[in-house]
Write a structure and sequence with these properties.
With 334 residues, the protein is of the alpha+beta class. The strands form 6 sheets. Strands 1, 2, 3, 4 and 6 form a 5-stranded mixed sheet that branches. A 5-stranded antiparallel sheet has the order 7-8-13-11-12, with no helix packed on it. The relative contact order is 0.14.
């Protein structure tokens, strides 16, 4: 189950930065968690597509969640409840649901990563957040030393956040997620590029919608296996109406999205407006098609990427008075 000596996890992170760990555990079955000494520090790894290791030697135990499987727990004429193990590939799971005619996840097609990681930051894209489809999250409670289930309402989901990223960070390990999906397709094309894509269509299927999402993603975002990256590096910032009014006066063309009684701005727009789209420093760049994405040429290290992101944060705050927050999970001493 483990390597007794240092183990390289360079191939297990989207940025492909060099990183060695003292102990690396592959968790092929959830019950193996009962044998882990949680008195020592640890980090749970899925597919590493949203993780930046900023040190080349990590003393924490790495727990790599690899258990896969999909079980139908319950279903009726309208909906189905699926328990999906944490190690399943998210893109492959979404594709499987479409093949089974289970609907709701189409807009989240092609997001890299594992199923176990999706509730942590409440992944979302093109008008849909995964919290809308999650029924409960199952896992191992470290303080209790046993497996428990956490109902949807107790997950404290908010924009790119959850209890697993907050109060339960380091205290709960997700082993599976239960989804409630629909058996009737009800398309969500609230995202403008999707409306444009289907403007001349009299009718389309869930597979058509998923394909549209895939094409739009591929036109903007690089494949992390070809160009090393972890997708959107920063969250879109949320601002008050007063702050928005101050900014709109100076930047009337700025994209703005209503978000409850606040407003969501485009982090990509803010970065690009600072002249940083396609900007390169050493071995790190912002992607030339989408400033929100930071890429790595494979010759640098995690610290270099972190410092690059710090520079972007400073430049955006200096120009707009808005502080960007990382969506990518940073592991190591900052």
């Amino acid at each position: 189950m483990s390597w007794p000596t240092a183990h390289s996890i360079k191939a297990l992170n989207g940025f492909q930065v060099p990183c060695n760990v003292e102990r690396y555990y592959t968790i092929a079955k959830a019950n193996q968690l009962l044998d882990i000494d949680f008195e020592e520090s640890f980090f749970v790894l899925g597919q590493g597509t949203n993780t930046l290791f900023i040190e080349e030697n990590i003393k924490s135990n790495i727990l790599h969640m690899l258990e896969t499987g999909i079980n139908i727990l319950d279903e009726n004429d309208k909906e189905v409840y699926l328990e999906v193990k944490a190690g399943n590939s998210w893109p492959e799971f979404v594709e499987w649901t479409l093949y089974q005619n289970f609907y709701g996840l189409e807009n989240l097609s092609l997001i890299p990563g594992s199923v176990g990681a999706c509730p942590v930051q409440n992944i979302g894209a093109y008008g849909v957040e995964v919290m809308d489809l999650i029924h409960e999250v199952k896992g191992f409670s470290i303080p209790q030393g046993r497996f428990i289930s956490i109902a949807h309402d107790a997950c404290e989901f908010t924009y790119r956040n959850s209890i697993f990223k907050g109060k339960l960070k380091g205290k709960f390990i997700i082993t599976s997620v239960v989804f409630r999906l629909n058996k009737t397709f009800s398309p969500n094309i609230s995202y403008q590029p999707l409306r444009d894509y289907f403007k001349d269509s009299s009718g389309f299927t869930a597979q058509d919608l998923a394909q549209a999402v895939i094409e739009i993603r591929q036109s903007k975002l690089p494949n992390h296996k070809e160009i090393y990256n972890c997708g959107s590096f920063f969250q879109n910032p949320i601002v008050s109406k007063d702050k928005l009014n101050q900014m709109i006066d100076r930047y009337p063309e700025m994209p703005v999205y209503a978000f409850g009684d606040q407003y969501k701005l485009s982090a990509g727009y803010l970065i690009e407006s600072c002249g940083l789209k396609g900007f390169t420093l050493g071995n790190v760049s912002t992607y030339h098609k989408q400033a929100l994405v930071i890429t790595h040429n494979g010759l640098g290290n995690g610290r270099e990427i972190y410092e690059f992101s710090e520079y972007i944060i400073r430049e955006v705050e200096k120009k707009f008075g808005v502080k960007l927050h990382r969506e990518v999970n940073v592991v190591g001493n900052v």
